[in-house]
Amino acid sequence: MRPDPDAATPAGGARAARGLAAALLAALLLAALLAAAFPATPARAEGLLGEIRARGHLTCGSSPGVAGFGVPDSKGEWRGLDIDFCRALAAAIFDDPGKVRFVPLAAPARFTALQSGEIDVLARNTTWTLARDTSAKLNFPAINFYDGQGFLVRKDRGIAHVEGLDRATICLQQGTTTELNLADWFRTRGLTYKVVAFATAEETGRAYDSGRCDAYSTDKSSLYGERLKMAEPEAHAVLPETISKEPFSPVVRQGDDQWRDIVAWTHYAMLDAEEAGIGQENVEAMRRDALSPDVRRILGLEGKYGEALGLTNDWAYRIIRHVGNYGEAYARNLGDGTPLKIPRGLNALWNKGGLQYGPPIR
C-alpha cells in the first residue's frame, strides 16, 4: 500500500482532521437519532424486567387452591394474599394490576416451573429453607407471611395436644417441608406415627375427611382453609401447637439481582405504606398534601428510588393505588372479615408486636 503523499503536508493534515471531525459528528447524530427512536427506559431496565415489559405481562406461579392465598372464586377470578402480591408487581411495572397471568402449580412442580423459565416469580405459600436457597439455585427475596406447621383433628377424638397423636396415622402432601418436620418432631419426643402421603392438597383433605387418617398436617394457614372444605367444618379443630418455622416468601431464579430487588421492594413498599398510614382510600389525598419526607419518598414525590430499581419513581404509589398496603391485603384475604379469620400474630407490623418490617425507602 502506497502512503498518501499529502498526509505529511500541513494541508493534508488539516483535511484528515476535518474528515475525522465529520465522522465523529455523524456518529453523534446517529446516536441522537437512535435515542429518539428508542427512548431510554428507567435505569437498570435489563434482564427479566425487560423481557416482562416486552411480553406485556407478568407470569406468576400460584397455588392451585389454598384459601386466603391463591384460589379462583365462583367467577374464576383469582383471589388471595399471594395473588395480590403478584398484582402489586404488575402494578409497579405496568401501572395495571391486570397484566399478570397466573399458572397454578402443585407443590412438586413449582420449582421446576420457575427454574425452566415457565414463570417469572413463584408466589404460593413456599417455605424459605437453606437447601432451596442454595442447591436449588433460587432466591427468596422477602418473607411475606410467617407460618408454622400444625395439625387438624376431629374434635370427637378428644385430642387436645400434639402429644396425643402418638401412633397416629397422619395425612400430608408430598413435595413439601411437612414430612421432614414431622420426622424431626416425633423422633425427638420418642413418639411414633404413620404417614399417608398424597400428590395434592385436595387429595389429602379428602382422605382425611373420609377417615383414612387421624390427623391432617400442613401449614397452619392452610389448615384453616382446609377445615372449611370438610363435610362438617365445625367438627374439626386446629391443635394449638406449632411444630416448625415456615417463613413464606415469593421465589425467583438466582442470577438477576434487579428482579430480586423489585420483588423484595414490592413487599417492603406495602409494609412501609401500612406503617405510614397510606392506603387505597387516602393515597390520592396523601400524595396531594404530603409533608412528611417518608411519605413523599414512598409516593415518588422526592428522590429517584424507582429509577434505582429500573421502574418509574411512582412505582410504590401505583402499588398502593391499585392493590393497597400489606394490612389491607391481609384483611381482605385472611382477616376477621373473611371465613378464615386468621389473626395477624407474627404478621403484624414490627411496632405492633409482629415481625413484618419494611426497610426504609431512602
Automatic annotation (TrEMBL):
- Name all Solute-binding protein family 3/N-terminal domain ranges: 57-286
PROSITE patterns from the xrefs?
Answer: SBP_BACTERIAL_3
Q: Extract the InterPro entries matched here.
A: Bact_solute-bind_prot3, SBP_3_CS, Solute-binding_3/MltF_N
Q: Which residues cross the membrane?
A: none
Work out whether the entry's keyword set contains Transport: yes
Similarity comment text for this entry: Belongs to the bacterial solute-binding protein 3 family.
Protein name (Swiss-Prot/TrEMBL): Amino acid ABC transporter substrate-binding protein
Q: Which organism is it from?
A: Methylobacterium planeticum
